[in-house]
Amino acid sequence: xxxxxxxxxxxxxxxxxxxxxxxxxxxxxxxxxxxxxxxxxxxxxxxxxxxxxxxxxxxxxxxxxxxxxxxxxxxxxxxxxxxxxxxxxxxxxxxxxxxxxxxxxxxxxxxxxxxxxxxxxxxxxxxxxxxxxxxxxxxxxxxxxxxxxxxxxxxxxxxxxxxxxxxxxxxxxxxxxxxxxxxxxxxxxxxxxxxxxxxxxxxxxxxxxxxxxxxxxxxxxxxxxxxxxxxxx
Length: 233
Hints:
The protein is mainly α. It has one domain. Helices cover 73% and strands 2% of the residues. The protein has seven helices and two strands, in the order H-H-H-H-H-H-E-E-H. It has helices at 9-37, 43-68, 76-95, 105-129, 135-143, 145-170, 187-221, and strands at residues 175-176, 184-185. Helix 1 (9-37) packs antiparallel against helix 2. The model is unreliable at 226-233 (pLDDT under 50).
């Protein structure tokens, strides 16, 4: 384990940041497992899990800002791609008053999101605290997306499809703003945009994650990867 002198102020900040995200997603994971185990199919029962999920996503928007300013070694546009679809799914599902919008895809969606973020943020915390991490953990960190990206996409897609069946006839989640232009936000319009965007971005996001995996595993194989530094410029 690193000594206090070896950990910079910047790393201390991000250590706390990633730790908070880790705790949020562990809560989501535990809530999802409990609801899945007890076979809960009512929308109101899933609200606490989606509430914590939404909090986690809102905190993660700051990651895009960090990436845009070069504070962390990630491409901001890919962070933006992932955050847009994830942030829009939560309020759409929790605002619909129809229980049939909850199904087998709901635990798949939340478990995929939470497992992905637990691995990512947990790994980030460990690489700040320790000089060396086992190779299997690094491979797990950069290989988990092969499954979790696909399962989360399936969950997002089915959530949007079933939400559309309710939103189109009822026009729920329609907000008319008090201005002379009568600007409004339409629920079906949001989901109509959400689904194509998610389908369009999936290959790009998957390719970026594959490129990241190859880069770090190549560095690992040549013993040039310095754990605890590659996230911070």
